[in-house]
C-alpha cells in the first residue's frame, strides 16, 4: 500500500508552480492597481493548490480505472501502479476539491458573489478533464483548458478579487501564465505520445505529432518572453522577468534536442521553475516599480 511519500508523489508536486505562480502574478497585478489584499491572496493560494492537487488525484483515479496508466514513462501513479485503491484516490480527489470549493466560496462572497459560478465551472473542468464518459483531455483540449483555468481565470480572478477590477496588465500576466502552464502540459504529453496513442488517449501532442509538439512548446515559452517586453510598457522594472530566461532555455534544451521518455521529465520541473521565477520577479516589479 502507498505510504506518505507515495501519496505526495501521487499529488504531482512538480505541477504546483502551475497553481502558485498565477496567484503570485495576479497579486502583482492587484498591487499595480493599488488593490493588493494579503488575506485574499492567501485564500486564492489555498484555492489554487487545493484544486490542482484535486485534479491530479482525479486524473490518477480516472486514468487508472481506464487502464491508461498501466504502461507509462512518467512518475508514479497510485491507481495505475496498484499502490492505492481507486476508492482511496477518489476520496483524496474529492477532499482536495472540497477544500478548494470552501476557500473559493469564502473568497467569492467577500469579493463578488457571481464568482461562485466561475468556481463551479473550474471544479467541473477539473473533474471532466479525464473523468466522465467523454473526458476532454482525451480529445486534445487539455492545453486549452489549462490556458483558460491556470492562466486567464487564475490570474484575472486573483487580481479582480483583490482590486475589484482587472486591466490590460492583468490580461498580459494571464496570457503569459496560461502559455507557461500549457507548456508544462505540452511537455508532459510529448513524453507520453507513444503510450497515450497505444491506450487511445488522443491528446493534442498525439494529434500534432512529435515534431510539431516540440515547436508548440517552444512557441509557448516565447510567448511569455514577448509579454515580458509588453509589460515593460507598464513599468521598465518588468524587465527583471528576464531573470527566468536561463531556466526557460534549460527547460527547452531536451525538447529542442529531440529527447524523449524519462529524459523529458526534467523539462516539467524546469518549466515550472521558470514560470514561478517569472511570476515572482514580475509581481515584485509591478508592486514596487
Please tell me about this protein's structure.
With 289 residues, the protein is mainly alpha-helical. It has one domain: Farnesyl Diphosphate Synthase. The protein is 72% helix and 0% strand. The model has no long low-confidence stretch (mean pLDDT 93). Belongs to the MenA family. Type 1 subfamily. It holds the Pfam family UbiA. Keywords: Cell membrane, Membrane, Menaquinone biosynthesis, Transferase, Transmembrane, Transmembrane helix.
Summarize the topology.
Elements: H1 4-10, H2 16-32, H3 38-66, H4 86-111, H5 115-128, H6 142-163, H7 168-191, H8 193-199, H9 204-208, H10 210-231, H11 245-256, H12 265-288
Helix pairs in contact: 2-3, 2-6, 2-7, 2-12, 3-4, 3-5, 3-6, 4-5, 5-6, 6-7, 7-10, 7-12, 10-11, 11-12
Summarize the structure.
Its EC number is 2.5.1.74. With 289 residues, the protein is mainly α.
Q: How many runs of DSSP E, i.e. beta strands?
A: 0
Query: Would you identify the regions where 5 or more consecutive residues have pLDDT less than 50?
Result: none
- The CATH architecture assignment turns out to be Orthogonal Bundle
Mean pLDDT: 93
The top-level CATH class is Mainly Alpha
Overall 3D shape = globular
User: What structural class do the secondary elements suggest?
Assistant: mainly alpha
- Number of helical runs? 12
Q: Strand content of the residues, in percent? A: under 5%
Q: What is the helix/strand order?
A: HHHHHHHHHHHH
What is the number of domains? 1
From the 3D structure, determine the CATH topology: Farnesyl Diphosphate Synthase
Whole-number radius of gyration? 18 Å
Largest sheet: none
Distance between the first and last residues' Cα: 51 Å
Amino acid at each position: 500500500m502507498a505510504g506518505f511519500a507515495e501519496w505526495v508523489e501521487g499529488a504531482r508536486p512538480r505541477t504546483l508552480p502551475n497553481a502558485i505562480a498565477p496567484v503570485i502574478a495576479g497579486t502583482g497585478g492587484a498591487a499595480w492597481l493599488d488593490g493588493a489584499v494579503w488575506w485574499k491572496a492567501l485564500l486564492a493560494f489555498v484555492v489554487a493548490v487545493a484544486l490542482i492537487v484535486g485534479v491530479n488525484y482525479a486524473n490518477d483515479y480516472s486514468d487508472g480505472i481506464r487502464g491508461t496508466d498501466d504502461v507509462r514513462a512518467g512518475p508514479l501513479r497510485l491507481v495505475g501502479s496498484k499502490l492505492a485503491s481507486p476508492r482511496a484516490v477518489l476520496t483524496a480527489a474529492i477532499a482536495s476539491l472540497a477544500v478548494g470549493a470552501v476557500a473559493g466560496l469564502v473568497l467569492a462572497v467577500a469579493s463578488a458573489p457571481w464568482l461562485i459560478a466561475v468556481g463551479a465551472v473550474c471544479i467541473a473542468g477539473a473533474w471532466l478533464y479525464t473523468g466522465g464518459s467523454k473526458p476532454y483531455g482525451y480529445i486534445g483540449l487539455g492545453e486549452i483548458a489549462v490556458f483558460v483555468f491556470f492562466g486567464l481565470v487564475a490570474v484575472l480572478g486573483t487580481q479582480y478579487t483583490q482590486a475589484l477590477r482587472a486591466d490590460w496588465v492583468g490580461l498580459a500576466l494571464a496570457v503569459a501564465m496560461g502559455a507557461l502552464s500549457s507548456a508544462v502540459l505540452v511537455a508532459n504529453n510529448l513524453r507520453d505520445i507513444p503510450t497515450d496513442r497505444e491506450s487511445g488517449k488522443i491528446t493534442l501532442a498525439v494529434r500534432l505529432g512529435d515534431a510539431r509538439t516540440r515547436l508548440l512548446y517552444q512557441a509557448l515559452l516565447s510567448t511569455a518572453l514577448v509579454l515580458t517586453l509588453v509589460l515593460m510598457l507598464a513599468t521598465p522594472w518588468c524587465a527583471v522577468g528576464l531573470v527566468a530566461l536561463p531556466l526557460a532555455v534549460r527547460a527547452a534544451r531536451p525538447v529542442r534536442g529531440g529527447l524523449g521518455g524519462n529524459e523529458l521529465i526534467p523539462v516539467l520541473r524546469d518549466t515550472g521553475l521558470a514560470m514561478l521565477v517569472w511570476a515572482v520577479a514580475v509581481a515584485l516589479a509591478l508592486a514596487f516599480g
